[in-house]
Amino acid sequence: MERTLQTPLFSGKADFNSTIFSGELFFEEIYCIGNAYLQFDNTKFSKVFPTHFKNIRFIATIENEEFKPRESENTPTIAFNRVIFTSQIVFLSCDFNYIQLTDCELTKATIGNCDFPRKQKIFRMPIGSNRILLGNEVFTIQMQKQIEEKNVSERKDKEAAIRKLNENKKEHEPEIKPEPLLKKKKKRRLKYEHYNMMAVTYRQLKTNRADNKDWATAGDAYRSEMVMRRKAIVQEMILYKKPFLVINLLIIWSHDIKAYHAHCCGCLLYGFYLVTGIIYMTAVLNGLL
Questions:
Q1: Are 58 and 99 in contact (CB under 8 A)?
Q2: pTM
Q3: CA distance 60 to 75
Q4: Contact 107, 204 (CB under 8 A)
Q5: Local confidence pLDDT in tens for the 289 residues of the chain
Q6: Looking at beta carbons, which pairs linking 147-155 to residues 24 or more positions away fall under 8 Å?
Q7: Minimal CA–CA distance to 131: which of 62, 229, 57, 3?
């Protein structure tokens, strides 16, 4: 069965949490405006029929023109949490600056003609200095609140399910007791888990683009993966008091430097062959050889 969402307009929150789609699905030419927030949490898409996310238009709005745009900008978002992307899920002409990926499997997704936001390094280099910057890379206070609210909600759901089981249990059956309340995770622990998750996401994106021969995006995703791994190691060093992890930090940093210089050397070698070829052809045409 085919379901189509063509040219609808979203300006608020729309939840597709734990939804199961069994047929072909089209999210085509939809508009996400202002504070629009489309959430796909543990959503199951069809493995047989394709799901199309095509030409999604994101339009940020300014709440108050007296402030700077960044301070008062309402940014639309499509958030995928714990979603397994198969080759049947197609992203076409989408801007990943507004798409968040959390604990997803991205390796096999079909991605075509999409824009990935780039970030320039502080010290500019001529070639190979960009990296990808996904929308949910930066760990924010709002993100921390969302994680805490989600944990509280899941805790309440479990307790409600246990109460229902205890009410319906037979006399000879033992009473089910809820799990002991765990301590609230510290912000640094949440940041450590977040950066590890983002490193895995960038690695999956790198594999996806390399399999599709998009070497430029794959290289930028690799640089972002290394940045996330460095941040995760810093958080781990402080959180678990492991100063010896600075060795891992230096190894990852050296890999990043080596990859950059290898890229630059390849470009210089290509330029050398190109100039040599031009000189040779010019000499041949002029009858010098």
A1: no
A2: 0.73
A3: 5
A4: yes
A5: 555 555 678 888 888 988 899 888 888 888 888 888 899 988 999 888 999 999 888 888 765 544 444 444 578 889 998 899 999 999 998 888 888 888 899 999 999 888 888 876 554 444 445 788 888 888 877 777 777 777 777 777 777 877 787 777 777 777 777 666 556 667 888 888 889 999 999 999 999 999 999 888 898 898 889 889 888 888 888 888 777 777 777 776 666 665 555 555 555 655 666 677 676 566 656 665 5
A6: 147/190, 148/184, 155/181
A7: 229
